[in-house]
Task: inverse folding
């Protein structure tokens, strides 16, 4: 902006120049202020972006932590479930074994009676009284079926079988009646019985040598 004066001296130029300087100074001040404002705006933008990025990172970290916690709890649940299943199987097996062996003492007490039935029936069969033999056989068969229903089974050992110390008890040894019976069962003195898979009385046998 230029101001004209009536006098034609240096004041005209000086005042004009002074006004221009003030205008330039104001423009420079405005430019500096704008620059500062822009810098503040840029700083605010950078800070906002940084805060947003930090927030995203924090959100991702929280999600990762929740996922890790969930996986940990899932693994813990699976372990507890597996342990519980093993416990159920183990207790079920123990319960079955208990049921099988619950009457072991009673059955052991009955075995001598079964032996007496065996010996009595062997003698009765020598008689000519078929009705008596038939009646005793029926009673003895009923007794054996009752014991079998409780899990009692005879340990199968026969004359001529190879001797196995895991399934029979050798009472004595005698000279083998024939070469084929050396080291084998020559006679069964007392029958053996098992309750389930457990042998509660081993067969007593004589083996040939």
Result:
């Amino acid at each position: 902006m230029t101001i004209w004066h009536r006098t034609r001296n240096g004041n005209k130029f000086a005042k004009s120049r002074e006004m221009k300087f003030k205008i330039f100074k104001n423009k420079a001040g405005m430019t500096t202020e704008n620059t500062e404002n822009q810098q503040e705006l840029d700083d605010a933008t950078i800070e906002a972006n940084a805060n947003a990025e930090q927030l995203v990172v924090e959100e991702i970290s929280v999600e990762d932590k929740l996922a890790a916690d969930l996986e940990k709890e899932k693994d813990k649940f699976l372990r507890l479930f597996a342990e519980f299943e093993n416990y159920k199987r183990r207790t079920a097996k123990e319960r079955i074994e208990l049921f099988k062996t619950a009457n072991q003492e009673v059955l052991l007490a009955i075995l001598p009676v079964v032996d007496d039935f065996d010996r009595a029936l062997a003698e009765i069969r020598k008689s000519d009284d078929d009705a008596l033999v038939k009646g005793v056989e029926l009673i003895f068969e009923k007794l054996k079926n009752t014991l079998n229903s409780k899990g009692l089974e005879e340990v199968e050992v026969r004359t001529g079988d190879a001797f196995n110390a895991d399934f029979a008890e050798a009472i004595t040894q005698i000279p083998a009646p024939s070469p084929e019976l050396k080291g084998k069962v020559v006679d069964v003195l007392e029958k053996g019985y098992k309750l389930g898979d457990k042998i509660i009385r081993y067969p007593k046998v004589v083996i040939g040598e």
Remarks:
- The longest strand covers residues 169-174.
- The beta strands are 152-155, 169-174, 185-190, 192-195, 198-201, 204-208.
- The domain at 152-209 is CATH 2.30.22.10 (Nucleotide Exchange Factor Grpe; Chain A, domain 2).
- The CA atoms of residues 114 and 176 lie 29 Å apart.
